[in-house]
Design brief:
The protein is of the alpha/beta class and 317 residues long. It is built from twelve helices and 14 strands. The strands form three sheets. It has a six-stranded mixed β-sheet, sandwiched between helices. The longest helix is centred in the middle third of the chain and has 16 residues. It is elongated and about 70 Å long.
Length: 317
């Protein structure tokens, strides 16, 4: 594969140990150029370690990571030549003024800040704010400035670790529109976030890590199709017992004329049984990314143990 055909990010068996602690183990990911990609996991899962390896801040114990075909450690300058990275807001120089910080980061990138004015407008950071020292900024203002510094030179690849931390809901939506616009122009975006609803709205594909290992990697739509959904069914009379025998269906709760069911795999047997059962109401919402994420992290007992909990009246699942 030539460098021109290389994925924007490629890790192969990427492993990092700190003494006896394994922070990342054999992570293999290929992020295509032009993708908008979510990288998910709780604190301590290995997300930040992965990003630090991509940025060349630490050396892999084994395996490799590359940006556009360039090794992040052995060929780091070339790897990061067309990169934008979100610096932690609290790491910004407090005695610099906002405008000076943007000028400084533009010089570091070696590229013209062609998107600066557009980003300032989208994230509503005023000229008056840019003339103030950063020590007077709120957390949200620092986050806006850090985002603009990362994106202003229109890099081919953006690596964003918790990009909306400190932003209010309106600014989060504005930022999402910025990401969609950059994606529409072929830029690659790799973002780590605890806001699963945001990732679901913005990203095409996600990887989920747990304890330093990859546990899932797929498009969001494929994850949804493969994940169990929760159905609440109301019947014209007492709820039947036959649903426990349907492949892919598990009874979660039963009360009077209602059942709550976990439904996975092929929906055909469930729908055929439903049609013949005298059901008069069905709630079957699509799984959210939050549901799927918690499915990977919930203790095994929480997903396999039977339950007899009552279904609260009027609850919509």
């Amino acid at each position: 594969m030539s460098l021109a055909d290389a994925p924007a990010i490629a890790t192969d068996d990427l492993t990092k140990r700190f003494g006896s602690v394994s922070a990342l183990s054999q992570l293999t990911l290929h992020v295509p150029t032009g993708a908008i990609y979510g990288f998910l996991g709780p604190n301590g899962a290995g997300k930040t370690t992965t990003i630090r390896l991509l940025l060349g801040f630490v050396k892999p114990t084994s395996g490799s990571c590359r940006l556009f075909g360039h090794d992040c450690w052995a060929d780091g300058v070339a790897a990061r030549r067309n990169l934008g990275y979100l610096v932690e807001a609290e790491a910004l120089f407090p005695d610099m003024r906002g405008a000076a910080l943007l000028d400084y980061t533009a010089r570091l990138s070696g590229r013209s800040p062609v998107l600066r004015e557009k980003l300032l407008d989208a994230l509503e950071l005023s000229g008056a704010a840019l003339n103030r020292k950063l020590r007077s900024y709120s957390k949200g203002m620092k986050q806006k400035l850090a985002l603009i510094a990362a994106m202003q030179h229109d890099p081919a690849l953006l690596i964003l670790d918790e990009p909306t931390d400190g932003l209010d809901p309106l600014m989060r939506r504005n930022f999402e529109e910025v990401l969609r616009d950059l994606h529409g122009h072929g830029r690659t975006i790799f973002m780590s976030s605890h806001d699963l609803a945001e990732v679901e709205r913005v990203c095409e594909r996600v990887a989920i890590v747990r304890d330093g290992r990859l546990v899932a990697e797929s498009s969001i739509e494929d994850l949804k199709r493969s994940h169990q959904r929760t159905a609440t069914v109301r019947f014209n009379g007492p709820a039947p017992t036959s649903f426990a025998e349907i492949p892919g269906v598990r009874v979660l709760a039963r009360e009077g004329d209602r059942l709550r069911l976990a439904v996975g795999g092929d929906l055909g047997p469930f729908l055929r049984a439903l049609a013949a059962s005298g059901a008069i109401d069905l709630e079957l919402p699509p799984p959210s990314l939050d549901d799927m994420f918690m499915g990977y992290y919930a203790p095994a007992s929480s997903t396999t143990a039977p339950t007899t909990e009552a279904i609260p009246t009027g609850t919509r699942r």
